[in-house]
Amino acid sequence: MLNIAVFGSGRGSNFKSLLDAMDAGRVRDVRCVLVVSNNADAGIFDHARRHGIAVLQWSRKMYASDEAYAAAMLAALREARADLIVLAGYMKFLPAPIIAAYRNRILNIHPALLPSFGGTGMYGLHVHRAVLAAHEPLTGATVHIVDEEYDHGPIVIQRTVPVLASDSPESLAARVLAMEHHILPEAVRLFAEGRITVEPGRTHVHIRSSQE
To answer: Pairing with 198, which of 15, 157, 166, 207 sits 20 to 30 Å away (CA)?
Structure first.
């Protein structure tokens, strides 16, 4: 059984898509043991509570130092026995001690085709406005392994979405989000099945076939 902790800052639609996939049996041998948000009123907490999952509001403002902030979160993750961290719309950067402790065991979903349209300030509608301003014919969504840089680290899954002439940032965001809802559960499933290997220096992970 793979124990996951899910971090999110907003309404939690990606988390809901993961819960739905787990409930439907499309993602097996996975248990969510903790949901974390920097926002006390985040919608992701509602989804967690309906499923009886422990929640934790966690903010840098609650601690006297960066070290205390990181130590408290590591303690909570270890107490929950989390094996994998899933960032599902989490708008804060994880402290370095957490990234180190969970090296190659943190997934993030990003609403663009990384490495394009990633990095500081590239979140939400900012991403889709930038895609439209660049007149890109394609955009998409990416699940990647988290490292010490924003929107960096080996890519696990990437899927494209066409950019239409009639698109607004909002309409493009809706179609990309639908793709996010598909690939995030798929990435967690691959992790749970032990099929992901992170190879040093590679821009993509190695995904073993189900027959290997």
So the answer is: 15
